[in-house]
């Protein structure tokens, strides 16, 4: 488990490229036959990836040591979106078929969780966010069609994109986790500009669908103290509540966003006027 401490905005201002990457960037999310986990002490979100190739993957009993519980999800909920080949997920006594671009919400208290690829030659890639939870809401699969798609932006501003809201209160109840996927149209490069903050929630962006030589310049920092990270395919960025989160790619890309914190109101954003940015 990679542990990331919370970070004050005044500290973040002083960092160079390597320092910013160490604090905010999550790399190597998908490793064969194991789960990778990055634990941020900001709202205690865990960001990770699971890629079963030759054998099933489970959450090891040792994870309970990190969470101080008998088993990993005893006091946590988990949301995942599959960006790879078809997956089969076992949650206690139930089996779920999670196809490409489908999501699964696993409610608090799930004891035995196992992840398999249907075909190891086209392995599943399960990107997940996991957060502390206070009650057990039902485990449920959510398809792309159920994710209430919303298309925003325009070709003139290079930000035409569709937001699929998978885990939001309109679709299903969760304790605090919100998750969705935003897909850019070919030729569109910008996400989330004009940008925003939400003091009440932290957020994590995970970029994918990118060629090996493509990059996204991900913008972070306070609106008057912006910085950037060069992000490559299948890497994630942790965004504290005080930070903007927006990006521009060298080609179109897709990203998964996940939020935890005070409320679950997707539209509750503090929009940053373009004239404020520095
Ligand atoms: O708080 C909401 C999140 O930042 C994202 O949903 C924004 C996003 O997907 C986009 O504008 O493309
Ligand atoms: Zn946001």
UniProtKB/TrEMBL annotation:
User: How does the cofactor bind to this protein, according to its record?
Assistant: Binds 1 zinc ion per subunit.
GO molecular function, one example? zinc ion binding
The reaction(s) annotated as catalysed by this protein in its Swiss-Prot or TrEMBL entry are: 5-dehydro-4-deoxy-D-glucuronate = 3-deoxy-D-glycero-2,5-hexodiulosonate
Q: Per its UniProt entry, what is the enzyme's top EC class, as one word?
A: isomerase
EC number, as in UniProt? 5.3.1.17
GO annotation, biological process:
D-galacturonate catabolic process; D-glucuronate catabolic process; pectin catabolic process
Task: Tell me the route in metabolism or biology where this protein functions.
Answer: Glycan metabolism; pectin degradation; 2-dehydro-3-deoxy-D-gluconate from pectin: step 4/5
Alphabetized, the UniProt keywords read: Isomerase, Metal-binding, Zinc
Binding of Zn(2+), residues: 196, 198, 203, 245
Function comment: Catalyzes the isomerization of 5-dehydro-4-deoxy-D-glucuronate to 3-deoxy-D-glycero-2,5-hexodiulosonate.
Q: What is this protein called?
A: 4-deoxy-L-threo-5-hexosulose-uronate ketol-isomerase
């Amino acid at each position: 488990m990679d542990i990331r401490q919370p970070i004050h905005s005044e500290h973040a201002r002083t960092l160079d490229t390597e320092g910013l990457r160490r604090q905010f960037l999550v790399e190597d999310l998908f490793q064969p036959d194991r789960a990778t986990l990055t634990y941020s002490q900001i709202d205690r979100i865990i960001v990770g990836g699971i890629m079963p190739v030759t054998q099933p993957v489970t959450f090891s009993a040792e994870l309970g040591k990190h969470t101080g519980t008998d088993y990993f999800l005893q006091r946590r909920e988990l949301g995942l979106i599959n960006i790879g080949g078809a997956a089969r997920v076992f949650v206690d006594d139930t089996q779920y078929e999670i196809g490409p671009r489908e999501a699964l919400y696993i409610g608090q208290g799930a004891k035995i969780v196992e992840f398999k690829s249907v075909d190891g030659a086209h392995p599943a890639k399960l990107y997940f966010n996991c957060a502390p939870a206070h009650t057990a809401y039902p485990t449920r699969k959510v398809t792309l069609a159920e994710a209430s798609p919303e298309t925003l932006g325009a070709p003139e501003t290079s930000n035409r994109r569709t937001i699929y809201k998978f885990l939001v209160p309109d679709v299903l109840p969760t304790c605090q986790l919100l998750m969705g996927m935003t897909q850019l149209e070919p030729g569109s490069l910008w996400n989330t500009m004009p940008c925003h903050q939400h003091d009440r929630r932290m957020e994590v962006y995970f970029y994918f669908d990118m060629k090996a030589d493509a990059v996204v310049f991900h913008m972070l920092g306070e609106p008057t103290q912006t910085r950037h990270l060069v992000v490559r395919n299948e890497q994630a960025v942790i965004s504290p509540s005080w930070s903007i989160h927006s990006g521009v790619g060298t080609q179109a890309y897709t990203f998964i966003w996940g939020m935890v914190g005070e409320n679950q109101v997707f539209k509750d954003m503090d929009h940053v006027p373009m004239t404020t940015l520095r």
